[in-house]
Amino acid sequence: QVQLVESGGGLVQAGGSLRLSCAASGSSTSIDVMGWFRQAPGKQRELVATISSRSGTNYADSVKGRFTISRDNAKNTLYLQMNSLKPEDTAVYYCWCVNYWGQGTQVTVSS
What we know:
Elements: E1 2-7, E2 10-13, E3 18-26, E4 34-39, E5 46-52, E6 56-59, E7 67-72, E8 77-82, E9 91-97, E10 100-101, E11 105-110
Parallel strand pairs: 2-11
Antiparallel strand pairs: 1-3, 3-8, 4-5, 4-9, 5-6, 7-8, 9-10, 9-11
């Protein structure tokens, strides 16, 4: 069983930055792949980025060069640094690993 709790969302102007955090607890230390997804109103949930000790990082084309995913294994925490934010980045952002999801954190980017 794994519990994921996101934090760090909020309201920011276009061009601004936010850093999301995802604290993992339970049987999370053995998990290799973790990631971030997002879901905008009226749209399907989509992959933002993943990280794996074996295969590195992977990003959606829409966020490449602007977002950075990282992981602190000592703290069991996953991060998503989001720079140069755009209004189209507005969504609920979810932390994910294996079959587990966090509750989501709202990110709103104003134009």
